[in-house]
Write a structure and sequence with these properties.
five-stranded parallel β-sheet; single chain; disulfide bond; 12 helices; 14% strand; EC 3.2.1.35; 16 strands; disordered C terminus; TIM Barrel; alpha/beta; three-stranded parallel β-sheet
Length: 464
Amino acid sequence: NLPACPPLLSGQPFIVFWGIKDSSCSNRLDFRSFGIEPEGRVAVFYEDTLGNYPYFVDKDNPVNGGLPQHTKLDLHIQKTQGDVETALPAPRYLGLGVVRWQEWAPQWSRRAGKQGLYQNATKKLLRRFFPDWTKQELERWSKVRVYCSVQRSRPKALWGMCPYPSCSNGSPAQTALSNYTGECPEEERSLNDQLLWLWRRSNAIYPLLTLEKIQVQYRNCLWSTTVAALFLSNQIREALRVASLGGSSDDLPVFPLVRSVYASTNTFLSLSDLVTTIGESAALGTAGIVIWDKTEPKTEVQICVYVLLGPYVSNVTAASRLCSASLCQNRGRCVRLEQDKPTYLHLPSNSQDAADRVRSKLWKRDFQCQWFSSADRDVSDQQSPKDGVPSVGKREDSVRRGLDVLPTVSDGISTTTGAYRAQNEETGGSVSPRTTLGMPLDKGEIKSPSGILVLLLLLLVLCS
């Protein structure tokens, strides 16, 4: 196995990022008190926010010409550079750079329906220039492949495309099987292997974890929890497998994007959902996750963060740090020994024996170390996200905390909910509950990643 790339933030083997632009709550939520990196650490670019990306809304509504052949590459690159500099003013921006082009697919076979628009439009264009070509010749030259990477202007960011790799393991026909395992079909793994050119030009892997289809299909059904766990676990495993194909000396870091809200019901993820997304990602050895939605949730974000998400994130991130210290001497990340075994990096509640000796024994039984490729990097040139203000060396909330309001999978969120309500009643709603952990937080000195230099360029070419 390849070693892991050192953590983006020193001393944090598993990092949870807040990637939702929430203007109503962003100034009121103290994300770092829960171990969550705030929104400024994540930059997600869409079709309309990065360059002059050509695509079709439908067959009669092209945007930027619809086809690469109608887009001037120099103008596209110029606008792309401007968009990046506007979104990330700090040249030394240290965070995640996610390109989320929903209209872009690197392989025809995976999105044949919508991609047919592009093929048909290209055929018409080619017919004008080559009226004598046969149908077979038009088919051959009408497949457009978009090759994407990211430019040198923000070299310390971890750039990658979302939502790749694909797994296609959650169709109704698959999940309805009594022996459903969730494994990615072999043909999907083979298609992912064909995307080596993409993995080799990426700094990170950004799969998308969403339970929307499973939730709709198995609403009010106990089987849904089992299906969801198998469905998501195998998507994470495939991303980790692909992370080793990049050709570098260490695995690419994997940061799954997790949708925070079910669109069909406008409700936040439940505790069991957090376990199968955040908890599973941590146990399998990803570098972190991103809580993400393109638009602001209509549901009350503050309640969710303080009552459920925040306490659970505090639990998992603290357990990840302690396991790394205990099992790996802070030089590696704890990874589940048996991938199919439902063991997690969870801290026990006060009612359980939380002695370091017992914890260490359990972790040694269920986890192993994936060592980091090198020691922590120099922090001398690190700058905080987006604005370029030098970062402080310690977390603001580096205080000792207890386990009294920390929910576990077994005891749910009743204690935390009670704490939230009690504080609100006492202060008229002006005070928010804080998660408490029974150990001091790490110093959290922020170190820069290796100097991965990439070129932001959209080359739009025809494939034979």
